[in-house]
Design goal:
The complex is a heterodimer of chains A (113) and B (109). Chain A has no helices and 11 strands. Chain A is mainly beta and 113 residues long. In chain A, strands 2, 4, 5, 6, 9, 10 and 11 form a 7-stranded mixed beta sheet that branches. In chain A, strands 1-3-8-7 form a 4-stranded antiparallel beta sheet, with no helix packed on it. Chain A is globular, with a radius of gyration of 13 Å. The model of chain A has no long low-confidence stretch (mean pLDDT 95). Chain B has no helices and 11 strands. In chain B, strands 2, 4, 5, 9, 10 and 11 form a 6-stranded mixed beta sheet that branches. A 5-stranded antiparallel beta sheet of chain B has the order 1-3-8-7-6, with no helix packed on it. Chain B is globular. The mean pLDDT of chain B is 95. Classes of the chains: A mainly beta (113), B mainly beta (109). At the A-B interface, strand 5 and strand 10 of A face strand 5 and strand 10 of B.
Chain lengths: 113, 109
């Protein structure tokens, strides 16, 4: 298997700008997850998809965040009107189904100036 | 409230000096306890899943065990390449992973 791929690896933007990240899961993995990780902390769950359906959202996912997974393949995470507190590593993971382990990509590091 | 606590926060070992990392959890409806390794600037790498008390899994110098309240990651005769942050996570009935803050392991040659 090729692993989970995330793009870009790093993103620097000014406060108030919109940003979009992309995640390509492992082929044939039905579940796709987004997490956020800040320095010295473990990843925190944001949302997950079963195929193209977004089934759960964390309360961390404010209305400035939106995630999509069209056609059940790759996923995008958009943050509108970025704030300083959005600076973090955004991690994507995928799994074959609910009973299989989640495999993570190397993340997109977002820095807000 | 679901809680996963890892200790110690940081651990320095001499090469060959065995030790254990602790993960204590308080979650409702545990559906698996996961261990991951994370290198700086990288995503977590899956190591083990444990489902029931008494279960053990091994991989090279690592062995994970599970009780009803804790999990341990035993590292036998560690090498410098074992240096990383080790994360444990509880999978709850909600299907997402609830992570601890990790133990940062440094193995000195």
């Amino acid at each position: 298997d090729t692993g989970v791929s995330q793009d870009p690896r790093h993103k620097i933007t000014k406060r108030g700008q919109n940003v979009t990240f992309r995640c390509d899961p492992i082929s044939e993995h039905n579940r796709l997850y987004w997490y956020r990780q800040t320095l010295g902390q473990g990843p925190e769950f944001l949302t997950y998809f079963q195929n193209e359906a977004q089934l759960e959202k964390s309360r961390l996912l404010s209305d400035r965040f939106s995630a999509e997974r069209p056609k059940g393949s790759f996923s995008t995470l958009e943050i509108q009107r970025t704030e300083q507190g959005d600076s973090a590593m955004y991690l994507c993971a995928s799994s074959r189904d609910a009973n299989q382990p989640q495999h993570f990509g190397d993340g997109t590091r977002l820095s807000i100036l | 409230e679901d809680q996963v606590t890892q200790s110690p926060e940081a651990l320095r070992l001499q090469e060959g000096e065995s030790s254990s990392l602790n993960c204590s959890y308080t979650v409702s409806g545990l559906r698996g306890l996961f261990w991951y390794r994370q290198d700086p600037g990288k995503g977590p790498e899956f190591l083990f899943t444990l489902y029931s008390a008494g279960e053990e899994k091994e991989k090279e110098r690592l062995k994970a065990t599970l009780t009803k309240k804790e999990s341990f990651l035993h590292i036998t005769a560690p090498k410098p390449e074992d240096s990383a942050t080790y994360l444990c996570a509880a999978k709850t009935g909600a299907n997402n992973l609830f992570f601890g803050t990790g133990t940062r392991l440094t193995v000195i040659p």
